[in-house]
Write a structure and sequence with these properties.
The complex is a heteropentamer.
Chain A: H1 10-33, H2 37-61, H3 69-86, H4 91-113, H5 118-138, H6 140-143, E1 149-150, H7 173-194, H8 197-207, H9 209-214, H10 219-245, E2 247-248, H11 255-268, H12 275-289, H13 297-311, H14 315-327
Antiparallel strand pairs in A: 1-2
Chain D: E1 3-12, E2 15-25, E3 30-34, H1 41-48, E4 56-61, E5 64-65, H2 71-76, E6 79-81, H3 94-101, H4 110-115, H5 118-138, H6 153-165, E7 171-175, H7 183-198, E8 202-206, E9 218-223, E10 226-231, H8 233-238, H9 240-247
Parallel strand pairs in D: 3-8, 3-9, 6-7, 7-8
Antiparallel strand pairs in D: 1-2, 1-4, 4-5, 9-10
Helix pairs in contact in D: 3-6, 5-6
Chain E: E1 3-12, E2 15-25, E3 30-34, H1 41-48, E4 56-61, E5 64-65, H2 71-77, E6 79-82, H3 94-101, H4 108-121, H5 123-127, H6 138-151, E7 156-160, H7 168-183, E8 187-192, H8 195-201, E9 204-209, E10 212-218, H9 219-224, H10 226-232
Parallel strand pairs in E: 3-8, 3-9, 6-7, 7-8
Antiparallel strand pairs in E: 1-2, 1-4, 4-5, 9-10
Helix pairs in contact in E: 3-6
The chains are: A mainly alpha, B mainly alpha, C alpha/beta, D alpha/beta, E alpha/beta.
Chain lengths: 340, 287, 397, 253, 235
């Protein structure tokens, strides 16, 4: 069963599908309209952080507000780069490897973390994140320490017989398509999971872990599963980032970065799958637009956050919901009827 | 020789702990009474330091007076913050997180734009160094130790011995129950925030004398404050003393044995293990 | 309803503002755009704000002097600055914006090593001439793989050599030296270089104090370093907050010997942080703006900085230097093409810097001869006063 | 015995909430567990369903020792429960509440759920059918698309029962199933409980409202965590000690 | 009338908690509201004491409109709520809990006097005055909660399920306590599930079911009411 599948609005589903398809096609055609490499770069960064933010939300819907997510991103990034740099593995292999290693660490950290809930979870996760970043500082021989790791190979060119070779160093367009595909792929999986039985169990645990376990949902198991899935995609995002940026510093994955990811999710709205996507898009692109404000630019970022918090209690995605409710004149799902 | 290092280390532990305690005290107060994680605490701490600097160095009034004025000014800022930014969101953790993080960004940018980012330091409050048999303590650190201790004691006494303090405790234990006793909860929240912010201002000013001032000085201290409060346990002011001592002890002794980045990792692992054994912290109430 | 209305209005206002004030990209035809990469906010902004101001001064200076003359045509220099926001991400974004949006082929700036690397990942493949101010000696930062990067002034390694030379001269009795360094990844390289130089001069390295980047209080690490009984202490790398704090603690703990810093840091700032009491027997690679021994150019910059910003800092001079050098290179090459400039500069043997005549070097040290070695000024802090010492000639072969 | 506790004890910080409790439930019965407020009834439920670990004693279910097991494993063995305050998933609709509760039969693997394989879809369809049946059984089909938190109290109580049925329990532990209901609702809820029992589910319930006791085959009275009487409702009603404990006075009723 | 509630309705989101509830408490009376868990009894008290907002309706205390007031303003008028589960401050000692009850009062002498009065009423509290409230037994906690309520000089005491978790002996004692309090001129609005207690002390009663008053009248009428007997006495 899929949430929505039993919803009575078959007609609106059709419109939705067309809208999504249209949006994705538009995104695919974007490079035709945007000739600035800088804007492409901004879009690519948005895509990468979208994967990370959506995977963070996957953890969040299971009731776990993690403040370590950027660290898992960094873990994937470093593992992928180290294997690609030191052992000359192809990034096509090391990127999933980065995801897997982030997942493994997520699971290892996750089991003890199931002992704690709510704010205590957040706090211990904060320390886990700090510890992972500290770990990167310890193995500076491989990670380059704070000065950073360079010489990370870019994605290798792809040769498909009959077509021109796709060279990732030639321009940002191949990267854009790679990340667009990766994002669509990751979001599809995350969306599919969220709207499956597993996603429902996560949400059930978040709403009441007592009730959830009374109906046989393995609270610890599902929470670790959420961490595993979330960390896997964070690792993928991080690894992709590494092979795009070709330089890594561990300060990109510290406390403030984790908090930034959290802001993307919270500002976008936790209630909807599209929340983090909207949040990331707004909070990555708008500050770039206001770059010319120089030292005043942070006010834009902070201002957006305050606007959202004051006027959009459910985040930006919640705003759409609010508007929709208003337009539909509080049309309820259905009024309760007498039982007897 | 070894004993010199040991004695100096004991002093280092005490001094560093008092720095940490001073920074974490206001943070713990807000967490206990208002139940909010005020991420902006470290930014308020920075603002306090800058106000003290502006008064003492730029305007040129007496240093202790400027410390006092900074305390009062930041206390008033706290009243404003509580009314406008905290009160509407007290029961909504997600929104409190976003608001306090937004405050960090805005306060840092404000200082960066107005005062500038040139590193400054407030002149010593207590110049000079105290030496005895191979151990030395600078006057400022000693002052921090004393002031930190006095403030911790004062806060605890205030809480235990005054009516307002008792009401703060009551709210921290049961805020609805407290409202039913006729306690003006909003007033207590305002007072608490003002005190918490004033404490941050003291910490910022003293830290401005011991270390230095920069708009971003709070970033690491924030993490330290969170570490202490979580170690102490949410809901415990007295626990800040122990949390601060533990963290101070880790940070002041580990570098003697483990150098560089590994220090961080070891300290964090110890804290994580402590927290997994006692998730509610050493003096926390319940999970 | 109301909040939404307010929000809509605010968004519209911001949007309108953004559209109205978007910098107009259509400049004059005879303008040479030079990018500037600095942290104006976030980590590093404490120094780089002033370096950026210095760079702005140099832009004005060049244009006042009539700009650049290339093949008979006059060019004005336009410095386009982007904020790196103190993060690697920000550095990459800023560099991308400069290269692909502003279409610059020459960039000055980036001081903090990790941002040098991050920006380099964009600038180097785009063949943008980079005029970098600082380097902490890691081969990954600067070497044969970065052919478009030029180190415009003496850096940690040169500063270290000058400082050790001066140590020998001023404190001949010192036998062993301890040095303190942030554990940021550069330790293995700097350690090797430091030991080589120190042992070749007959010093013993007493101990190495590595500190974690998150350190708030340096007392423990200083306690450890002092336990090895060094006669002199060096800061191999660092920034004013750390250097000043450590100097203060070292003196508080009763160490009387000489202490010195190897990198270009503002001595006044260090003194402000360390306090007058502790600021003694300390020397560092830096200029003294008040000394009559400064080059005419430095005096000129000081005047300009005071006129424009009210107060002159050593960082202004540092920030002024790259464009000053670039002017000579462009006039020598008679071109604005980055590859031509690179080749021309690479073949130059000498170049004038604001610090005095510079020589090109670095082939042996870094693997590439793109290092400008100019006289290295030494400034001492003595009894709470900044004291001009002298110019030391250093050269990285 | 189907479900029995042996010397079951639970201490909270030195205070015994349940002390050496011996009780048993036979298969197919409806047993009422009564006692004054704070007598330890809910604690007993929490001990049986694994939400609390007993300080001493054992709990046997169908001959197997289940004391101290994790709640979801106990649920898997066929012990369903409801909560005193109508705990439910407030952000889910009624139907989603029930569908979510189908975790054990049939079980789908991670990969099935991820790729929405035909077998997964088949199982989900089956679950939809089953959920509809339960919905019909408890009579909530009229409100199936209402969010849990918007549901009136009586419906919430019914929903918690419906949800507990989703695990196909062999025994159902109902914690105050009719508290807060109107008279009609009570009658209706009692008929639902009767229907559930007729499907072969054993029921152990806690209730203050004496009306429900007409349903029970047997009543166990506890006070201070200890059993003080057992028997039919009539027998218990005559018991002076029960009267004293339950109604606070000896000449009650 | 000391307290007059007119057509009070409370909705949480779309869920109804109370609908058009009207009730009255006369000066010096003990009035009880009977109803099962979730019937909305506690909601009434929470609205009266200002903890929760009402959706519609009017509440007058001493002819003063009190809804929309902050809890402390309501307390200052003399309407004091002893909440369900007592809501003591478990990490504070008995004396501190009592002092907090007098939060709004400024007359030190009066407080001292009342403290004495409370201690004579509940001598056990005097013995335990340095003990943490959380470590008291259920009965002692109940007494402390009542005593704390008395410290704010109530004119009307709202009691929410005082028998919760009490031993039978204590329930009996509670009856005399409530009667004693009432004798000093304090009106009481008692919310109970324990109908026996309620019937014993109250003068007047209301039966609440699913947010609506379904029965009201003098307590004698209640005893004879089939509805009450059937629903709550199990007959």
């Amino acid at each position: 069963m899929v949430a929505g599948e039993h919803a009575p609005s078959g007609g609106r589903n059709w419109i939705k599908t067309v809208a999504y398809a249209g949006l994705i096609i538009l995104l695919f055609l974007l490079p035709l309209f945007v000739d600035s490499v800088y804007y492409l770069h901004t879009f690519i960064i948005t895509l990468i952080y979208t994967i990370a933010a959506c995977s963070l939300r996957t953890i969040l819907i299971s009731g776990q507000l993690s403040i370590a997510h950027a660290a898992f991103m960094g873990l994937g990034a470093y593992v992928s780069s180290i294997f690609a740099r030191e052992l000359n593995w192809t990034p096509w292999l090391t990127i999933p490897l980065g995801g897997v290693s982030a997942m493994v660490v997520g699971v290892l950290a996750g089991y003890p973390l199931t002992r704690v809930r709510a704010i205590y979870f957040s706090m211990v996760s904060l320390f886990v994140g700090l510890a992972i970043v500290a770990l990167m500082g310890v193995f500076q021989k491989y990670t380059g320490g704070d000065i950073g790791l360079i010489g990370i190979p870019p994605l290798p060119s792809i040769t498909i017989p009959g077509l021109p070779t796709i060279n990732f160093l030639s321009s940002k367009i191949p990267y854009y398509y790679f990340f667009l595909l990766l994002t669509v792929f990751c979001l599809m999986i995350l969306h599919s999971l969220e709207n499956s039985r597993i996603g429902m169990s996560w949400k059930a645990i978040a709403q009441s872990y007592l009730v959830a376990s009374s109906v046989g949902i393995n609270e610890a198991g599902f929470r670790v599963l959420a961490l595993a899935v979330g960390c896997f995609f964070a690792g993928i995002a991080g690894a992709g980032y590494a092979h795009y940026n070709m330089v890594l510093t561990r300060s990109s994955f510290g406390f403030l970065s984790s908090v930034n990811l959290l802001i993307y999710v919270l500002v976008g709205g936790t209630g909807s799958f599209f929340g983090p996507i909207i949040g990331t898009t707004v909070l990555v692109i708008v500050p770039e637009i206001f770059r010319w404000l120089k030292t005043f630019a942070p006010f834009v970022f902070g201002g957006i956050m305050l606007l959202v918090v004051f006027f959009m209690p459910q985040g930006i995605a919640g705003l759409f919901e609010q508007v929709k409710t208003k337009f539909l004149h509080f049309q309820e799902r259905k009024k309760p009827r007498d039982v007897s | 020789m070894i004993s010199d290092v040991a004695a100096q280390t004991v002093v280092n532990v005490l001094m560093l702990s008092s720095i940490y305690i001073l920074v974490a005290l206001g943070f713990a107060l807000l967490l206990t009474v208002l139940g909010i994680l005020n991420f902006a605490h470290a930014a308020i701490y920075m603002v306090g330091g800058y106000i003290c600097y502006q008064l003492a160095v730029v305007v040129g009034i007496n240093q202790w007076a400027s410390l006092l004025i900074s305390m009062i000014a930041v206390g008033l800022l706290g009243l404003f913050l509580e009314r406008v930014f905290f009160r509407p969101f007290l029961k909504d953790m997600n929104r409190i997180v976003v608001v306090t993080l937004a405050l960090i960004i805005i306060l840092q940018a404000t200082i960066n734009v107005t005062v500038g980012s040139y590193i400054r330091r407030i002149p010593s409050f207590v110049p000079g160094v105290l030496r005895f048999s191979g151990v030395s303590v600078s006057g400022d650190r000693l002052a921090t130790f004393v002031i930190g201790g006095v403030l911790l004691l004062a806060v605890i006494l205030f809480i235990r011995k005054t009516k307002t303090g008792l009401q703060m405790l009551a709210i921290s234990q049961d805020s609805d129950g407290a409202a039913l006793q006729g306690i003006k909860t909003h007033r207590i929240f305002a007072v608490t925030t003002a005190i918490g912010c004033a404490l941050a201002a003291v910490a910022g000013s003293l830290m401005g004398a011991i270390l230095s001032l920069s708009p971003f000085m709070g970033d690491i201290m924030l993490v330290k404050a969170i570490e202490i409060v979580i170690l102490a346990g949410i809901g415990s002011i007295g626990g800040v003393l122990i949390g601060g001592l533990i963290l101070g002890a880790l940070d002041a002794t580990l570098p003697l044995f483990i150098s560089g980045s590994a220090t961080d990792l070891t300290g964090l692992c110890i804290i994580i293990i402590l927290l997994l054994i006692r998730p509610q912290g050493l003096f926390g109430r319940e999970v | 309803m109301k909040p939404r209305g307010i929000f809509a209005i605010v968004v519209c206002l911001f949007g309108a503002l953004a559209l109205l004030t978007q910098p107009c990209l259509a400049g004059e035809p005879k303008t040479l755009k030079v990018g500037g990469l600095f942290c104006l906010t976030g980590f590093g902004s404490s120094a780089e704000t002033y370096i950026a101001q210095g760079a702005k001064l140099s832009e004005e200076w060049i244009n006042e002097k009539g700009g650049l003359t290339i093949k008979g045509e006059k060019y004005k220099v336009e410095l386009v600055m982007e904020d790196m926001k103190g993060t690697a991400d920000g550095a990459v974004a800023a560099a991308t914006k400069l290269v692909y949006d502003h279409k610059v082929k020459i960039v000055i700036g980036t001081v903090v090593p990790f941002m040098v690397q991050a920006a380099g990942s964009v600038l180097e493949p785009a063949k943008v001439l980079r005029l970098v101010l600082y380097n902490c000696g890691m081969p990954s930062e600067y070497g044969p793989q970065t052919p478009y990067m030029f180190l415009t002034y003496d850096s940690t390694i040169e500063g270290m050599r000058a400082a050790l030379d001066y140590l020998k001269e001023a404190y001949p009795k010192v036998k062993n030296v301890a040095y303190i360094i942030p554990d940021d990844g550069s330790v293995p390289y700097l350690d090797k270089l430091f030991r080589e130089k120190a042992t070749s001069m007959g010093y013993e390295v007493a101990t190495v104090g590595k500190w974690a980047m998150t350190t708030q209080d340096f007392s423990p690490i200083i306690t450890k370093v002092l336990a090895s009984k060094p006669e002199a202490i060096a800061f191999a790398n660092g920034w004013p907050q750390a250097t000043g704090s450590m100097l203060k603690i070292i003196r508080d703990m009763g160490f009387k010997g000489p202490v010195f810093g190897c990198n270009y840091d503002d001595a006044y700032q260090i003194m402000e942080i360390a306090g007058k009491e502790a600021s003694t027997d300390f020397f560092i690679h830096q200029i003294d703006l008040d000394s009559p021994d400064m080059t005419p150019m430095i005096k000129e910059i000081k005047k300009r900085a005071e006129a424009k910003y009210g107060k002159a800092y050593g960082m202004h001079i540092w920030g002024f230097n790259p464009l000053y050098e670039l002017k000579q290179v462009i006039e020598a090459a008679q071109s604005t093409d980055s590859t031509v400039l690179k080749d021309t500069w690479g073949k130059m043997k000498t170049i004038d810097t604001v610090y005095g005549p510079g020589r090109m070097g670095g082939l042996k040290t870094y693997g590439i001869n793109h290092t400008v070695c100019a006289p290295c000024p030494i400034v001492a802090l003595m009894a709470g006063k900044v004291k001009w010492v002298k110019w030391v000639d250093v050269y990285s072969p | 015995m189907f479900l029995e506790t042996k010397e079951l004890t639970k201490n909270f910080g030195g205070l015994a909430a349940v002390f050496q409790l011996e009780m048993s439930v036979r298969e197919g019965e409806i047993v009422g567990l009564i006692g004054p407020n704070g007598a330890g009834k809910t604690t007993v439920f929490n001990l049986i369903t694994g939400f609390l670990r007993p300080s001493g004693g054992r709990i046997l279910f169908d001959g197997k020792d289940i004391s101290g097991k994790k709640p979801h494993l106990i649920a898997k063995m066929g012990i369903g429960r409801t909560f005193q305050l109508a705990y439910l998933f407030p952000e889910f609709t009624v139907f989603e509440n029930i569908v979510t509760s189908f975790n054990l039969y049939p079980k789908s693997s991670f990969w099935e759920a991820l790729f929405k394989t035909p077998s997964y879809r088949r199982k989900e369809l089956y679950i939809l059918e089953q959920a509809k049946e339960i919905l019909y059984l408890v009579g909530l089909e009229g409100v199936k698309n209402v969010l849990g938190r918007n549901l009136p109290h009586g419906y919430q109580k019914l929903l918690t029962m419906a949800r507990a049925l989703a695990i196909k329990p062999r025994i159902l532990l109902l914690d105050e199933p009719i508290a807060g209901m109107s008279l009609e609702e009570i009658n209706y809820a009692m008929s639902v409980i009767e229907k559930i029992r007729s499907q072969g589910v054993t029921i152990l319930l806690v209730e203050h409202n004496m009306r429900i006791m007409t349903l029970c085959d047997r009543v166990i009275v506890i006070n201070f965590g200890n059993k003080i009487a057992e028997g039919s409702m009539e027998e218990v009603r005559q018991n002076q000690e029960v009267m004293k404990a339950y109604f606070g006075r000896e000449d009650a009723a | 009338m000391l307290l007059r509630v007119k057509d009070l309705s409370v909705y949480y989101g779309k869920a109804m908690a109370l609908e058009n509830v009207s009730l009255e408490v006369a000066q010096g009376a003990v009035v009880t509201i009977i109803g099962a868990n979730g019937a909305g009894k506690s909601t009434i008290l929470k609205v009266l004491s200002g903890l929760w907002p009402s959706t519609s309706g009017e509440v007058y205390f001493d002819n003063k409109k009190i809804e929309g007031m902050e809890p402390y303003e309501i307390v200052s008028l003399g309407l004091v709520h002893i909440p369900e589960g007592r809501r003591l401050f478990p990490y504070l000692n008995v004396l501190e809990n009592l002092k907090l009850g007098a939060s709004l009062r400024k007359d030190k002498e009066g407080i001292k006097q009342d403290l004495e009065g409370v201690f004579t009423h509940f001598p056990i509290l005097r013995d335990r005055r340095k003990q943490k409230a959380g470590s008291l037994s259920g009965g002692e906690q109940m007494m402390l909660a009542i005593a704390r309520g008395l410290m704010s000089k109530p004119r009307l005491l709202l009691m929410d399920e005082p028998t919760l978790g009490l031993a039978p002996v204590m329930v009996v004692e509670l009856v005399s306590v409530i009667q004693a309090i009432n004798k000093t001129g304090v009106s009481v609005l008692l919310v109970e599930q324990n109908v026996f207690l309620a019937l014993q002390v109250a003068h007047r009663g209301y039966v609440l079911e699913v947010g609506k008053v379904i029965l009201e009248g003098n307590i004698d009428q209640f005893r004879d009411s089939d509805l009450v007997k059937r629903a709550y006495l199990g007959e």
